[in-house]
Amino acid sequence: xxxxxxNASPEVLKVLAxxxxxxxxPHAIMFSEPxxxxxxxxxxxxxxxxxxxxxxxxxxxxxxxxxNRIGKLIHPDVHFVFPTTSPQxxxxxxxxxxxxxxxxxxxxxxxLGVALGIDSKSSMIAVAEAREVLSQLALSALEGGWRSxxxxxxxxxxxxxxxxxxxxxEEPEPLTQxxxxxxxxxxxxxxxxxxCLRLQLGAEAKAPDFDSxxxxxxxxxxxxxxxLYAALExxxxxxxxxxxxxxxxFCKFASDAMRNLFLRQQGxxxxxxxxxxxxAWAARARKTFPRAAVACFDRAYRLVERNVNAKIIFTDMVxxxxxxx
Length: 325
Ligand SMILES: [Zn+2]
Known about the structure:
Radius of gyration: 20 Å
Strand content: 5-15%
Shape: globular
Bound molecules: zinc ion
Number of helices: 14
Number of strands: 5
Number of domains: 2
Strand order of the largest sheet: 2-3-4-1-5
CATH architecture of the largest domain: 3-Layer(aba) Sandwich
CATH topology of the largest domain: Rossmann fold
Distance between the termini: 27 Å
């Protein structure tokens, strides 16, 4: 994951790269974001930049061994903690966590619950996690450089976990980096959050409401009927949206709708505000479709941002979707 793959605001990315470039890195950074935001991608991109052996133009190279291992979540000195249900711990669930991140780096809390096979509402970061973190920090870095701990949803730590971790966060060993990602900063224990540099993510990337949802309905309908001609026609109408902003809003709306479709297929209750017609599509779409479709819509979003010709982007997008439905 490089900074340029994150869809986060250039200002924030510049701040993060600047910390590494100047060597003035706060030992604990806490990102706040709405559920499903870019913080996990940004955390990975930041770590990749920190560890990269061939940084270039304010970004990681994306190909050196360090970049490669961080991108795959297999770097021996980068550890991940996320809420689970007892007696499972994050390290035991890492294979499933990796799979989720590879498929959908902007995963939501509900998607994490599905991926881990747990009820995300009752999950927490229990004291066993703190013990694991502390024992990892007691070892020296296997590769001799930075050791990093990414804590996803610190608001799900109980008091005992927080107490155990506090000293490590407060007075970290040299070359130790904590990254926290929260969706509810007001619920993170004050003793922890006050030790972190706080950065807000995602609010600026929030797409405007998309006011032509029938474009997605028509596209999905054509795809599900396996009518390529009608699907391309729908793609044409999407590429004729009046501005880059509205094309991006469509991609965001469609990507969210595919997440809803995925959750609906998994039998997860959807919030009332969910976008798209998940209920109607769930029975007809293949189980592998929603994930791959999220990637298609997110890719289209990035290409729109890079000013690629809209007709080319959306024709290609429709062809990709048609091949996976
Ligand atoms: Zn690299």
